[in-house]
From TrEMBL:
Component of the Sec protein translocase complex. Heterotrimer consisting of SecY, SecE and SecG subunits. The heterotrimers can form oligomers, although 1 heterotrimer is thought to be able to translocate proteins. Interacts with the ribosome. Interacts with SecDF, and other proteins may be involved. Interacts with SecA. It comes from Luteibaculum oceani. Belongs to the SecY/SEC61-alpha family. The lineage of its organism: Bacteria, Pseudomonadati, Bacteroidota, Flavobacteriia, Flavobacteriales. The central subunit of the protein translocation channel SecYEG. Consists of two halves formed by TMs 1-5 and 6-10. These two domains form a lateral gate at the front which open onto the bilayer between TMs 2 and 7, and are clamped together by SecE at the back. The channel is closed by both a pore ring composed of hydrophobic SecY resides and a short helix (helix 2A) on the extracellular side of the membrane which forms a plug. The plug probably moves laterally to allow the channel to open. The ring and the pore may move independently. This is Protein translocase subunit SecY. Pfam families: SecY. One of its GO terms (cellular component) is plasma membrane. One of its GO terms (biological process) is protein transport by the Sec complex.
Length: 441
C-alpha cells in the first residue's frame, strides 16, 4: 500500500503526465454531461415511460455503449458508433481499392487523408442513421411532428456524434489512453453500479445470496483469464551477430534478445468493430418495422444466431487486425539488416515464414478465446443472471473495459519508467513472465 501511494505521488509530480490525466478526466466529464442533454423538443417524462415499457434486448446494449444517451434521446444518442462504422468501411476499402491502399502506405500524410475521409463518411452515416433513430426509438408522443424539428434534430444528432469523435481524438492526442476506447468504456462503466445492485437485490429477495457470491467469483475468474489473454506473449529468441569494438581490435559477442509476439496482437478493436456491425440488424429492423425473420433473430442479444455471427466476426476481425498490426516480412527484413537471426532459422524469407506461422498459431486460440468471452453473457442469462448484469459477465463490455484499462495503465507506466520512477506494479512492469508457459499474464 505504501508503494502504491508513493507511485500516485510520482504520477502527480510529473507535470506532463498530470496535465494529460486531468485533460482526459475533463473531456470524459464533458462526454458524461452531454449524454444527459436531451434533444430540444423531446418530452423526457413521456420518453422515460415509453422506454421503460419497451426496453430490453440489444437496444439496452446499445444504450450502454453510449452511456445511456441512446435511451435518453440525448444529443450524443448516436455515440461513437457511426465513426467506428466509417473506420471499418475505410479499413475494408483499403483491401480492395488501390488509391486507399496507396494512402495507407504514405505514412503520416496518408493517415491524415484517410482520417479526413473517415470523418466525411461518418457524417454521411449519421445523416442516414439519425432519422431512423428518431422514428423508431423516440415515441411520437414524446417529440414534435414538424419537418423543421426533424431537420434540426438530425443536425443535432450528427453534430453530437462529430463532437464525441472530436473528444476521442483530443483524448488520444492531449490526454492518456485511446480516446475512442475510453469513451466507450466510460459509457459501459456508468451502468455497472445499477446493474450490480439490481442483481444483488434480486438474489437476496429470492434467498440466493450464495448464488450471487458464486457469480462474483466466476466474474473475477473471467476477468483474470481475460487479462491473461490480452497480456499473454510468446517470446521468440533473436541472436545478433558478433560486432567489432575498440576500433576493430576486439570482437564483442552479440546480444540475445526476444521478439514478444502477443497472443492478441489486435487489442480490443476486433470486439468494438464486431459489435458495431452487430448493431446494423437492429437499425434495419427498426427502420423497416420488421417484427420477425432473420433481422429480428440477429438483433436478439441472447439468441443463437446473434452470438454465432458475433463470435465468427470477432475471430475474423482478430486475424484481419493482426495482419494489419504485425508484418512478419518487415520484421524479418529489419532483423536481417541489423545482423539478427532466430536460432535454427535462415534469415530472410524463412524467418518471415516462421514468424507468420508462429503468429497464426498464437492468433487462433487467442481469437477463439475472445469469441468465447464475448458470448458469455448469453450463457450467463441461461443460468438466470439478469440481462443488465450479464452484459458485464464477460462479453464485449468486459473485454473493452479490461483492454482499455490495461492500455491506459501501460501508457502511465511508460511515462513513469521514462523518468526513472517505479511503475504501477512492484516489478515495474504490468505484464510479468509466467515461466511455466513462457507467456505474460
Amino acid at each position: 500500500m505504501k508503494n502504491f501511494i508513493e507511485t500516485i505521488k510520482n504520477i502527480w509530480s510529473i507535470e506532463e503526465l498530470r496535465n494529460r490525466i486531468l485533460t482526459t478526466l475533463g473531456l470524459l466529464l464533458i462526454f458524461r454531461i452531454g449524454s444527459y442533454v436531451v434533444i430540444p423538443g423531446v418530452n423526457s417524462d413521456v420518453l422515460a415511460s415509453t422506454s421503460s415499457a419497451s426496453g430490453g434486448g440489444i437496444a439496452d446494449l446499445l444504450s450502454m455503449f453510449t452511456g445511456g444517451a441512446f435511451s435518453r434521446a440525448s444529443i450524443f444518442a448516436l455515440g461513437i458508433m457511426p465513426y467506428i462504422s466509417a473506420s471499418i468501411i475505410m479499413q475494408l476499402a483499403g483491401i480492395a481499392i488501390p488509391p486507399i491502399q496507396k494512402m495507407q502506405k504514405e505514412g503520416e500524410s496518408g493517415r491524415k487523408k484517410l482520417n479526413q475521409y473517415t470523418r466525411f463518411l461518418t457524417i454521411i452515416i449519421c445523416v442516414l442513421q439519425a432519422p431512423s433513430y428518431i422514428f423508431t426509438t423516440i415515441d411520437p408522443a414524446a417529440r414534435p411532428q414538424s419537418a423543421f424539428w426533424l431537420t434540426t434534430a438530425v443536425i443535432l444528432l450528427t453534430t453530437g456524434c462529430l463532437f464525441v469523435m472530436w473528444l476521442g481524438e483530443r483524448i488520444t492526442d492531449k490526454g492518456i489512453g485511446n480516446g475512442i476506447s475510453l469513451l466507450i468504456m466510460i459509457g459501459i462503466i456508468s451502468s455497472l453500479p445499477f446493474a450490480f445492485f439490481q442483481e444483488l437485490v434480486a438474489r437476496v429477495d429470492n434467498g440466493g445470496l450464495v448464488i450471487f457470491i458464486v457469480e462474483i467469483v466466476a466474474l473475477l475468474l473471467v476477468i483474470a483469464m481475460t487479462i491473461m489473454i490480452i497480456q499473454g506473449t510468446r517470446k521468440i529468441p533473436v541472436q545478433y551477430a558478433r560486432k567489432m569494438a575498440g576500433g576493430g581490435t576486439r570482437a564483442v559477442s552479440g546480444a540475445r534478445q526476444y521478439i514478444p509476439l502477443k497472443v492478441n496482437s489486435s487489442g480490443v478493436m476486433p470486439i468494438i468493430f464486431a459489435q458495431a456491425i452487430m448493431f446494423v440488424p437492429l437499425y434495419i429492423a427498426q427502420a423497416t418495422g420488421t417484427q420477425s425473420g432473420i433481422l429480428v433473430e440477429l438483433a436478439n442479444f441472447g439468441g443463437f444466431w446473434y452470438n454465432l455471427l458475433f463470435a465468427t466476426m470477432i475471430i475474423l476481425f482478430t486475424y484481419f487486425y493482426t495482419a494489419i498490426m504485425v508484418n512478419p516480412t518487415q520484421m524479418a527484413d529489419d532483423m536481417k539488416r541489423n545482423g539478427g537471426f532466430i536460432p535454427g532459422v535462415k534469415p530472410g524469407k524463412s524467418t518471415a515464414d516462421y514468424l507468420d506461422n508462429m503468429l497464426s498459431k498464437l492468433t487462433l486460440p487467442g481469437s477463439i478465446f475472445l469469441a468465447f468471452i464475448a458470448i458469455l453473457p448469453a450463457i450467463a442469462m441461461l443460468f438466470g443472471v439478469k440481462q443488465q448484469f450479464s452484459i458485464f459477465f464477460g462479453g464485449t463490455s468486459l473485454l473493452i473495459m479490461v483492454g482499455v484499462v490495461l492500455d491506459t495503465l501501460q501508457q502511465i507506466e511508460s511515462h513513469l519508467l521514462s523518468r526513472h520512477y517505479d511503475g504501477l506494479m512492484k516489478t515495474g512492469k504490468i505484464a510479468g513472465k509466467n515461466p511455466a508457459f513462457g507467456m505474460a499474464s
